[in-house]
Design goal:
11 strands, five-stranded mixed β-sheet, globular, alpha+beta
């Protein structure tokens, strides 16, 4: 029989279900972001944006770039794949947007957390670009990004 005032620990149950909740949240967020790049006609102005992504002049092998509306711009976020330093984003919102980069690589180490083992991933996006780069999409634009590891954010247009 349990002592008075003693409650059974809840933490153990939460640890087992946390990864599944996180995975569901990631899935929902990914579905929302990808819906902005679908082939459907948007009710907001969109454009095709393409260009290159480099870090200190070296082409980014793989990653993603997202275009998030900001500053009162209406529209849905859009995401595109970066492959061999190039990207093409269809249906990017027109106006002021923030370009966000996801560029990672495995470190070769394994991490165990909540009874799950997975590869450790290193974020390659230089610190000053992790909150994104503000740009203006005016139409079907070619916008190259050269992310510098030792300077202020810079983007060529």
């Amino acid at each position: 029989m349990a002592e008075a005032g003693y409650a059974r620990p809840f933490r153990a149950n939460r640890q087992k279900s946390l990864p599944s909740h996180c995975m569901k949240l990631v899935g929902v967020l990914l579905a929302i972001m990808l819906s902005g790049c679908s082939g459907e006609k948007s009710k907001f102005p969109t454009a095709t944006v393409q260009g290159s992504v480099t870090i200190d002049g070296a082409a980014v092998k793989e990653g993603t770039i997202q275009f998030m509306p900001e500053g009162g711009v209406s529209g849905q976020p859009c995401q595109a794949t970066i492959a061999n330093g190039q990207y093409v984003a269809k249906n990017a919102p027109v106006g002021k947007v923030r370009a966000l980069f996801t560029i990672t690589r495995p470190t070769g180490k394994m991490i165990t957390e909540y009874s799950s083992t997975y590869p450790e991933i290193e974020n390659l996006v230089p610190e000053q670009y992790r909150s994104g780069v503000p740009i203006t999409v005016s139409g079907n634009d070619n916008i190259p990004f050269d992310l510098k590891t030792a300077s202020e954010p810079d983007q060529k247009q």
